[in-house]
Amino acid sequence: MVKSLSGGTDRATLLFSGLFYACGLAGVFVSGQSSDRTGDRKWHCAGGQAATALLLAGSAISGQPFAVVMMWLCLTGFAAYFWPSPFWALPTLTLTASAAAVSIGFINMCANLAGWRGNYQMGWLRSHGYSERECLLFLASCYLLGSLFTGLVRIRPTTLRQA
Hints:
Blueprint lengths: L1 H5 L3 H29 L3 H18 L6 H17 L1 H4 L2 H5 L2 H31 L4 H20 L12
Helix pairs in contact: 2-4, 3-4, 3-8
């Protein structure tokens, strides 16, 4: 998508795509700092997923200049890597140790399946006449659904320890 929008070479496409991951690195750092400071893992995760959905949908708005699309994609990179760090703390906050271990394995199993199925689904959509824009909106809806599910997670109340 970046190559088709920029009309650039393979090298330019690689450099533009690298911006997405550079912003993602910043997202990991900021979310770790913020969720550690506040202790709020659930809403950092749900909010990051919702932001990813909205920013990804913003990048799908047709008729935008390439610079604006790249801005959307860079912000999407920030948000897409913002939510996973607090997400992996949720099983231990909501479950017993053994159940958390099983849930982490189950989450990884589902993620592997989604990684395979997602590529297949995008290929299917593209081969059946759906545009890149519609595929991005489908991905955005998946992030939004994840945000809603994360928002439903119940966190056990904890007692604050005096240091």
